[in-house]
């Protein structure tokens, strides 16, 4: 689960023909909380004109700080040629690159991202590349109080964006009596957001306010008074992306579930795992196991089919051709002749084990960084899995969405692999292949660049939309669990039996005598820290018992795990041997 990357805003306030311009500083608020800022400065150096802009944001997540920063420089020579450099810091290793534009070839922008192939972008008619030209156009619109449209390029996400504004009228701000307020919209890729901005004919852009999925973003000049502070006890930025689910002891084992969207019903993709029903409801199901043809489909070894080529290509996010990946492939120690699905399962488990430091402070690392430094959260698991799968000839893509984990529904990133004519979700963060059913897909990405990741869909987490579980199959949520004597049957038909045991289910919490029981994803190394590895004396079933927490993790095989709390050590051995499991 993760937070969004930097929110890109247009900065201005530079006088076009000045030889030296003062530093313009801005402060940024997200959802009423101050989280960052920006600056821009222009200067003349020898025969060059240079404009440097910076934007930064500090997010708090689970008690840790995540700092993200964009640094861009544009330099224009006397002949009009422009060079650009950019550096986007979302984790330890930045995404960076350079670009060039020449008046000799005015319709083409040449990009050179680090760890990526050189690109050529066609420049739309009337697009603006030089930052001071944008400043001048905005100030002229404020002076004449007329509409303005500007198309610009975002180097970090490598996308064109268009700002369209209509004047509302004079709206003075403290220290800027000539400010004019505009309203309109900004389009970046496929995302369009409303924009309200204040521009001074003499000082440039002063304030910009926009809405992203119900979350207010405010960027304004540092000398303006700040907005009213949030009330004490207000939810933090990351906490606002989380929703509470009613408890269900077998949530991670569900084959299917029905959820109702309360609020604006989203327009979500539909496939075999996610289908829309009447009344704002969505039916979710775990992907079916591969059939005979899918199970034996071979990876791609030659030139790929056109439909699969983009899902087998390297990019700055997944540069799998780097020699650093050779070492990971040696660690994988794959036998020859594996099918696509066999490779998907092995890579899913390997990535789960490779990333030992499940670190929520990583913003968004490339697969190469994760290859060298095994730390991160769901996006780092996802990009590394995609890189390895593509290197092995398995078409793979990333997915953004929500996932249920225990009593929490939160933003998440996972992977889909191509088997014959369908895409099958796998989740390396939890070592699930196929992935669990309770996940809501917002969109998928070929990971060609950051602009394709689909954060605009994730912004729905702030829109007030709530997901309410209604069914876990044909039965109401939680009602598909049956207790008969010393046996419990799960909604998917699996059975747990402890001879002489006493099961009870109260308010979604399952107990076996004095012990609470819950199906969980595979525990991480951090969760097992301090635990002792046990084995049933008769069955040799594996388990891990933590003496300080008196918690038993039981490996049932086939990717299924149980967690039992408040279990003494002697009882842990007994449960490993005597608990009978029949998986449906």
Question: Quick summary of this structure?
Answer:
14% of the residues lie in helices and 40% in strands. It has 584 residues and is mainly beta.
Notes on the structure:
The chain has 584 residues and is mainly beta. Helices cover 14% and strands 40% of the residues. It has a 14-stranded antiparallel beta sheet with strand order 8-7-6-5-4-3-2-1-14-13-12-11-10-9. α5 runs antiparallel to α7. The radius of gyration is 27 Å and the shape is globular.
Give me the count of strands.
36
How much strand?
Answer: 35-45%
The first-to-last residue Cα distance is 29 Å
Q: Which residues form runs of ≥5 with pLDDT under 50?
A: 1-19
Measured as a percent range, the helix fraction is 10-25%
Provide the spatial order of strands within the biggest beta sheet.
Answer: 8-7-6-5-4-3-2-1-14-13-12-11-10-9
- So what's the oligomer here? single chain
The averaged pLDDT comes out at 89
- Radius of gyration, whole Å: 27 Å
Cα shape: globular
- Let me know the largest β-sheet: 14 strands, antiparallel
Count of helix runs: 9
The secondary structure category is mainly beta
């Amino acid at each position: 689960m993760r937070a969004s990357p930097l929110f890109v805003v247009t900065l201005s306030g530079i006088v076009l023909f000045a030889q030296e311009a003062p530093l313009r500083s801005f402060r940024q608020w997200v959802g009423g909380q101050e989280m960052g800022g920006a600056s821009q400065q222009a200067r003349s150096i020898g025969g060059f004109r240079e404009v440097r802009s910076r934007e930064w944001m500090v997010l708090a997540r689970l008690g840790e700080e995540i700092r993200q920063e964009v640094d861009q420089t544009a330099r224009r020579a006397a002949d009009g040629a422009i060079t650009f450099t950019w550096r986007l810091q979302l984790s330890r290793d930045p995404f960076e690159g350079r670009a060039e534009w020449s008046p000799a070839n005015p319709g083409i922008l040449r990009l050179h991202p680090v760890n990526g192939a050189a690109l050529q972008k066609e420049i739309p008619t009337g697009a603006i590349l030089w930052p001071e030209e944008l400043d001048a156009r905005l100030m002229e619109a404020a002076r004449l109080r007329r509409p303005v449209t500007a198309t610009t390029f975002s180097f970090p996400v490598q996308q064109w964006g268009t700002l369209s504004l209509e004047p509302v009228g004079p709206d003075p701000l403290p220290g800027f009596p000539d400010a004019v307020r505009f309203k309109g919209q900004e389009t970046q890729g496929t995302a369009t957001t409303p924009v309200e901005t204040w521009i001074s004919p003499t000082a440039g852009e002063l304030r910009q306010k926009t809405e992203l999925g119900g979350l207010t973003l405010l960027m304004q000049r540092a000398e303006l008074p700040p907005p009213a502070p949030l009330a004490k006890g207000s939810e933090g930025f990351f906490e606002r992306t989380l929703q509470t689910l009613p408890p269900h002891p077998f949530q991670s084992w569900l084959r299917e579930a029905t959820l109702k969207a309360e609020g604006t019903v989203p327009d979500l993709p539909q496939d075999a795992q996610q289908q829309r029903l009447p009344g704002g409801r969505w039916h979710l199901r775990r992907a079916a196991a591969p059939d005979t043809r899918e199970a034996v489909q071979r990876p791609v070894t030659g030139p790929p089919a056109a439909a699969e080529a983009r899902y087998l290509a390297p990019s700055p996010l997944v540069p799998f051709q780097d020699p650093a990946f050779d070492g990971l492939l040696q660690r994988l120690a794959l036998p020859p002749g594996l099918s696509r699905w066999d490779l998907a399962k092995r890579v899913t488990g390997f990535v789960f084990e490779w990333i030992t430091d499940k670190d929520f402070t990583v913003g968004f690392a490339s697969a190469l960084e994760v290859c060298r430094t095994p730390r991160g959260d769901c996006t780092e698991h996802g990009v590394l899995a995609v890189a390895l799968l593509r290197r092995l000839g398995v078409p793979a893509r990333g997915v953004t969405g929500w996932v249920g984990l225990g009593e929490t529904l939160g933003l998440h990133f996972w992977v889909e692999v191509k088997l014959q004519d369908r895409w099958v979700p796998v989740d390396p963060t939890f070592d699930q292949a196929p992935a669990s059913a309770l996940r809501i897909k917002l969109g998928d990405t070929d990971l060609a660049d950051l602009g394709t990741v689909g954060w605009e869909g994730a912004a729905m987490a702030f829109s007030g939309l709530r997901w309410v579980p209604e069914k876990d199959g044909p039965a109401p949520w939680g009602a598909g669990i049956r207790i008969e004597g010393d046996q419990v049957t799960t909604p998917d038909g699996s059975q747990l039996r402890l001879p002489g045991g006493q099961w009870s289910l109260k308010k979604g919490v399952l107990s076996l005598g004095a012990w609470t029981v819950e199906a969980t994803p595979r525990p991480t190394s951090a969760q097992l820290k301090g635990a002792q590895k046990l084995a049933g004396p008769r069955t040799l079933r594996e388990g891990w018992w933590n003496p300080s927490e008196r918690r038993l993790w039981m490996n049932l095989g086939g990717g299924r795990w149980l967690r039992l709390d408040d279990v003494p050590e002697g009882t842990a051995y007994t449960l490993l041997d005597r608990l009978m499991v029949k998986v449906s």
